[in-house]
Structure formats: C-alpha cells, structure tokens
Amino acid sequence: MQMTTTFDEMWGRGMGQSQGHSATASDDGASGGPNSRSSRMTQAQTMYEGLRPPYAAFDAWLKGENPGRLLRKQHEAEEVFRLTGITFNVYGRAEAAERLIPFDIIPRIISGREWARLAKGIEQRVRAINAFLHDIYHRQEIIRAGRIPVEMIARNAAFLSKMIGVEPPGGVYTHIVGIDLVRTGEDEFYVLEDNARTPSGVSYMLENRETMLQMFPELFSRNRVRPVSNYPLALRRSLAACAPAATRGDPVVAVLTPGLYNSAYYEHSFLADKMGVELVEGHDLRVVGGRVAMRTTEGYKPIDVLYRRVDDDFLDPLNFNPESGLGVPGIFDVYRAGGITIANAPGTGIADDKAVYSYMPEIVRFYTGEAPILQNVPTWRCNEPQALRYVLDNLHDLVVKEVHGSGGYGMLVGPTSSKKEIATFREKLLANPGNYIAQPTLALSTVPIFTRAGLAPRHVDLRPYVLVSPDGVTITPGGLTRVALKKGSLVVNSSQGGGTKDTWVLEE
Amino acid sequence: MLGKTAGGLYWMFRYLERSENTARLMAAGQRIALTRSHADDEWISVLETTATLDSYSARYGEVTRDNAIQWMLCDRDNTSSVMTVIESARNNARLVRTALTREVWESVNESWMTLKDALSQKVGERELPQVLTLIRNRSAHVRGAFAGTMLRNDIYNFARLGTFIERADNTARLLDVKSYVLLPSASAVGSSLDNVQWETILRSVSAEGAYRMTYGQDVRARNIAQFLILDRRMPRSLAFSVGKLVDNYGYLADCYGTRLDSHAKAGALHSDFLAVGIDEILDAGLHEFIQAFLRDVAEVGSQTEVDYRFYA
After folding, report:
1. Looking at the predicted structure, is the pLDDT value of residue A21 above 50?
2. Interface A-B: count of C-beta contacts within 8 A
3. What is the tally of structural domains in chain A?
C-alpha cells in the first residue's frame, strides 16, 4: 500500500504526496511574527480540502493567537509536567532514568457523531473479547465451530492453562481495555491492536486535560468538550462491582505495582491516589486465612479487588515464574477459590496476542452475531507458508511485528528501513516465522502539532480506555492520542520518542 | 494505612530534616573556619557531627575545606550528603505519593530538581552561602506546604515522628562534638576563642536570636547547654523534640486505640527530661548524657519501625 494521500484531521484530505505536503513552512524557525502563522495556515488550506467542522471553533481561536504566546504556553506546559513528576522510566538508561513524555498543545478534536460510532464499535469489540476469553477458558465453542484453528490457542504462550474452568468474579476478564485505533479517512478507523492485559497511559489522558484546562481555559468555554476527569471514580466503581463473594462490607480495592523503578510507576501511584485506594507492592501482601491481605500499621487487612499492574508471569511465584519477587505467593490459589478479584484476570493475553488479532473479525461475528463495526488491519500470519512467502517478497512495503511484542520494540517498518536493516530482519523472520505477523503500512491520519516554525502535520493513533463490569461497559470519551513527533514517522510509542496530545470529544 | 507507607513518611521527613540540619551545620562551620588559623579543624568537627569522618577519610584522606564541602553536599558515596539525602527524601515521597497532598509532593519534587541542578557542579567557597540558603529555603517550602495542606491524621503524625527523631539525634550529635566547650572547666576560661565556639553552636541550630531573647548578651556555656538540652520553647532542643514525639505517639495511640512499646519508651525518655536539671547533667558528664540520649532515641526509632510494621 503506497502512501499517496494522507487524511489530516484538521484540514481534510491532502492532495499531494504524504511526505511532501506539510502544512508548515520549512522547520527553519526563522520568522515568528504574528502574521507568519496565518500565512502558513492559508498555504495549508490550499493544499487540503479545507477546515473540518470539529476544528472550526478551535481554528477561530488559533487565528487570534500569536506564536510567541503559544511557544511560552508550550514551555509552561512542560514545566507543569516536570513539577508534577509525570515521568516514565526508560529501561536500560541510567542517566536519563526519568523522562517526560513530550506534550503537544494543539488538541486533537473528534466530533460527537464520529465518537458515537467509534464507541459503538469499541463496545462491540470489548464484549466480544470478554466472551472469547470466557469461551477459550471453558468450552472452546469457537474452536469446535472451526472458526479459529486449535493450534492458535494450544501452542500459544499467552494461553494460561491454569485458567481453564476458573470463573472470574462477575464474569469479567478484561476490566480495563485499551483499544489502539488509527484513522485513515473521514469514516475509516482501523484497530491496530487490542490491549487486554494492563493497558497504560490513562494518567496522561487525565493530566493532558488538566494541563490544557490550566493553560487555555478560554478554549473550553468556546468548545463544549466532554470531560474525562470522571475516569478514576468510574474505575473504582467498576472494580468494586467485580468484588468476589468473599467481600464483607465495602469492597477494599488496591493497586499492585512492581515498584518505584517500573516505567509506569507514576501512573500506578496516580491512579491509586485518585481512586483513594492503597498502592501496594508484592512485599506488602501475603495470604492470610485464605484471603490476600496487606500489611497495615495495625496488622494484615484483606483486599477484595486487586488492580494489578504486574504481568501474569510475575504475579505468583508458587504458580507462575518461581523467580518473581514482585508477586504474592499463593495469590492465584486464593483467586481460584473466589477469595479475590484480579484485574485484569490472568490469561487475558490470549485475546491481544497479535496472531489472534488477525481472527478478531471472526471473533466479533461469532460472539455478537453482528458485523464488526471497526476494521481490522489485514494481517499475514508468518506461520502460514503462503503468507510468509508474500511477506518475504514485500518486506520493504510491510510492517512486521513480533506476536507478543509491545512498545514498538522488535518491529520492522519496511518503508523507512534501510536495505541492511531489512536483510537483518529477514534472517530473524526466517529463523522463527511463527513469532511474526505482517501488516501493510496504512496511510495514518495526521494532526497538526505546534513547532517553532508553526503548525506541522504528524501521524497519530488513539487509545480509548474501556472499563468492563457486570454493570456494563464504560468508555471515557476520547482517550490518549499518541503522536509521532518526528516528521514522517509512523511510530508513536513513547519509548520510541513519541509524544501525546489532549483529545477532545465534542458534545455534538 | 500500609506499614510501608508509614515507614516511607517517617524516612522522608527524617531525610528532609537532615538536609536542613546539615546545611545549618555547614554554614556555621564555614563561618568559624574563617575566624581561625587552623581553619580545617572546624571541618573535622563538622564531619564528626554528621558521623561521616571515617568514611570521608577513607575516600579523601586529609580533611580540606573543598573536599569536605564536596563530600557533605554532593558526594553520592556519602549516605548523608545533602544530594543523597534529598534524593532519598524524594524517593520516599514517590513511594508514599498517595499519602501526600499534591502541594507537598510538588514541593519535594521541585526541591529535588532545584538542588540537583545547584549541586551538579563543584560548590566553591564563594557559592557556598547561597547554596546553603537554598537548601534551607527548600526545606522551609516543603514544611510550609506540609503544615498548610495535610490532614492532621496518622499520616501527619508518622511524618512528624520522623522529623523529631532526626532533629533530636542531630542536635544531640552537635552538642556531643562541641561538648568540650560546654564543660564547666572550659566555661571558666572565657577566652574569645571559646566565645566563637559557643556562637557556632547556636548558629548551627539557628538559635542566636532566640538565645539573646532568653538570656540577653550573656553567653555562657551553662546557659547554652540549658537552652539546647532542656528549654521546651526552643524548637531544636532535645526537650522540645522529645515532647513532640510524646505528642505524636499520643495521637497514634488514640487513633489506633493501642499503646505500644515505642510509646512507653518515648514516655520514659520524656519523664527523664522532666526530672533532670542542667547542673546534674554537666556534673555527671555531658558526653555520657548525650551518648545515653542518642541510644534511647535510636531505640525509640527502631521500636517504632517494629510497632507499626514498616517492613515485612
């Protein structure tokens, strides 16, 4: 798939080459007078279809702003983030142990109508994922029906056989889901991946909004933006609604973190703080009288619902990786006996595995009886000889990912890789084809970012956050927009230098 | 409340208190060193007070002003250097983030960022006064945010326990190192050198003004000892710190409905203070008194760690 046109969410579809048609003058940062920005905007408009309606009020505001003030605001925003300590830890880099994720002040705006359709698609997908997980760990009807091959599950490292027959409290497997979406056109959204284990980033969604409210209050009186600040409360409610039968009185909720040096520690403490619950580590917990209990100043006190941000493998050294010091010995036995809710349930990784992803349209149809609302990116499974042959022949056009990979590590982006990089990757692929899937490079939509030289288009994705409880599915309007700050780059992961934006869903 | 959180608060405030006391001690040290011919002797005394003379000597050998400053402010091998201590305070703050108000957290985080910046290069004689002022100001900022925004609950009281255990310890160590100038035999000498020594002690706990308000211009060893050991109005005195500890334990006893061993130990230490006079202390030996005090305070601290389950 060649990138001939790109859909810009502010200005509509562009007319030229995606790499060429930049909505900005060259990034030389030379002029900065009040007029230079508007001339750039005019230039931009002639190259695109024209301003899209969700951006109308924002654009009117922007026309009255001068670049100097915006630049100051951009710095102020960074200062707020630094002071708040909204950082993430980068593994393997001692000196820059804590880093800020770059924040861009230009919001990404989604109309109420666009969102309504997206939300329907997300809910459909998330319900299907939960039904799939229940089925996979019980009767496996979907395999009996021949809709997905048995090897997909049986030989999959993400399948947790210890979960077979386990009934999670409330019947919920994925209490918190992050669905990564990309846009390619006016009504075209693709799901890039489903994050059904421990999706991160929601603290950025919340802090980005707080920062924007502080920086530009006037924007929020001109635009009716749906609030996101309810998320921590909704999360706590949703978790409490999944409390196990053993609960006495109000459910006690806690967040389990691997600790201070985990890359997402800030987020773990943020969520515990905003929910008003304890932030615990493995060494704060032990099994006491058939319950998982935390060591308080007054002795051990049982926990009902544990929102864990520790991977399955490290959860319980008695049941999983015996080397783990991050988990709680015996917690899985308590779980199986209905003494605690673990969110998300162990074993949910089988639903966001990249090979299983390719079957998602089938999975949605099978469990909901409906056609999928959101599209899946066409995916070649390299364990299939025919697919592998195609992938090897077209490496320079494809994105190849590890089946269990995340964070943008260990992937090949064909169009932007050198011959040498492709050759090296080919060796890796041939050595273990089953470890990879391949997808075409999509013409991801762009959104303007603020640069010293004015606005410039950059590729984005969107991760809405979804809460699942027996009471229903709750989707916070918007989500986290991640943006590839490097010109032309398609990789938005923060570990690879991506940034974030505030994401607005308008009331109508 | 988690035992770990109680422990994190306790240590966070011990470290904050230590950074501030180290800055005061160094300011007084620099001042007196400037007035003496054997200037570096005073830096030895500063190192002794922070109980780091041995580790310093192992690293640098001979005591010089510049090395002592570097060691006390920036050296990451010194577990009591201001940089290490501020970093530990912040790490503990991150650990107990859910127990702190946003203002307290931001204040600690900003202190860490500011001081990391200020201490990233060698601090010379010229910059030292400003840097030391900055350290004390940052500490005051955190304390202000803490006093102004924190709920007066168990969280608050664990933080205060840390503050006063550390303060009691730090003031006692200062008195111990300077005890020779406070002895009755020394006070008889009354040379100008000793006056400078006495003044240093007062400066090291920011008490020159408070002392003058209490005793006027009459600077005597006995009065200084009385002031810093037994005066309950003086916020850095031993009696004041112990009194506060008793209050904080009293709150926790009410809050949890149980009296524990640490409360009893602090209570006993406090009654000893109410019973003793300064002449008795000086006659029996200041050094011995202080050593016993330091042991008792350390014991109250470690009993607290056990009583409130700081560690697994």
Report:
1. no
2. 59
3. 3
